[in-house]
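QA checklist item 7 of 12: single-chain prediction sanity check.
[x] sequence parsed
[x] length recorded as 298
[x] structure emitted
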Amino acid sequence: TMNHLFDYQKVGADFLCKNPAAFLADEQGLGKTLQVIAACDILGLTKVVVICPAIAKINWRREFERWGTVEREVKVFSYDKITQSKEVRNEIAKFEPDVLVLDEAHYLKNRTAKRTKYLYGQYCRGDGLVKFADRVWLLSGTPIPNNVSDFWTHLKAIWQYPLNFAEYTTYFCKTWSGQFGLQILGNKAERMAEFKTVLQSIMLRRKGEVVLKDLPPIWWQSAPVEIENWSDMKHIAEPLQALAVDMILAQSLSGQDLSTEIESIAPHIASLRRLTGVAKAAPIAAQIAGELADDAYD
């Protein structure tokens, strides 16, 4: 994997290797997945569990298959699955992973959410599923979506930060006690240097413009999605695919002009494109809705 990494990604992989508890917070699109796989390879980790949004599951599996150089067992679960399935929670505990990767870790910023309690423990004391893993690596391009109170759950559960939520929040944030309890208005500017010191050894964050010299001017990445009812479309997709392949072969072997035949299947290809778009709409909408509802309580 290391041969395929940019220099800043090699630094990221090294950071993960050196820190059993680490937060990799590179901006979106800088290749956090690849850095995790490289670190797993360097350390020879054979038992890996990834928890991620449902939409990202297929991508994690594909990337490990594509880039991983070590024979290993990789289990990938969505945050929803952790919340819904006791069997999955038991499976992770029994598996005792070498590393537990918490992708889009800002999904765990809410201390009252079920997924946070299952992973971090009832009071974020680190006695949830994280305790069964030798290493816990957190990933997010938006580690602190609103204000630094979003970061308390991680600090408490993974790094045993001494202050409880109320103490931490009143120390680092501007707050107001209203009829609905403690309202957070933003960060206290005068305490932010101190907060950055807290993060110094646990978080690595690089921004696109800083690592730009390493990057090509533009590149595209596919975002594959899992489609539940694709079998509904098989009756259209498979015969059409076979027909198209036959026609292309016939044309290349005989040299004859098949433009009329190609025109005749064009409407079917258009239908297939439309159906593919329809099939992808639901999982993509779910991803966007999940990102928008990120702040919401479970």
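[x] summary fact logged: Strands lie at 21-24, 47-52, 73-78, 99-102, 135-139, 173-178, 181-187, 203-204.
[ ] second reviewer sign-off
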